[in-house]
Design a protein that fits this description.
The chain is α+β, with helices and mostly antiparallel strands. The chain is about 25% helix and about 30% strand. Strands 4, 5, 6, 7 and 8 form a 5-stranded antiparallel beta sheet that branches.
């Protein structure tokens, strides 16, 4: 099954798996998906992920609190193939008053909002997570 927007597919699968309280979710890999998942791991929104290059799949292990509530409250796609949303580095939004992250695709690669502000690099506002 192919999709027109692989980033939206990634975010939707994570959102649905967290809502169903699944331990992990499997998705197909691409470079940008792996970069987004690395940022989610770095900021503690997921526990870990494994990439299997032979089957071209990635297994993402979701993170929950002790009460079995997902640490991801909202994961939302901002820019889409039909409507691109670009921001300059001065206008990168703070997500949930700094509790969440904005993920951007910049000329320096896929980075979180804080890194983009520090490097003074704007770009396409891919998604926000909190």
């Amino acid at each position: 099954m192919s999709f027109n927007d692989p980033i939206a597919e990634l975010l939707t699968r994570i959102r649905n798996a967290a809502g169903a309280k699944l331990r992990f979710v499997d998705i197909s890999i691409s470079k940008i998906k792996v970069q987004i998942v690395e940022i989610l791991k770095k900021h503690g929104f997921i526990e870990n992920f494994l990439v299997n290059k032979e089957t071209k799949k990635m297994r993402i292990f979701l993170r929950y609190t002790r009460k079995r509530e997902s640490v991801i409250h909202e994961i939302k796609r901002i820019s889409s193939p039909g409507f691109r949303k670009y921001v300059e580095y001065k206008k990168i939004p703070k997500v949930a008053n700094g509790l969440g992250i904005a993920i951007l695709s910049t000329s320096l690669g896929v980075v979180d909002g804080d890194s983009a502000r520090q490097q003074k690099a704007g770009g396409e506002f891919l998604c926000k997570v909190w």
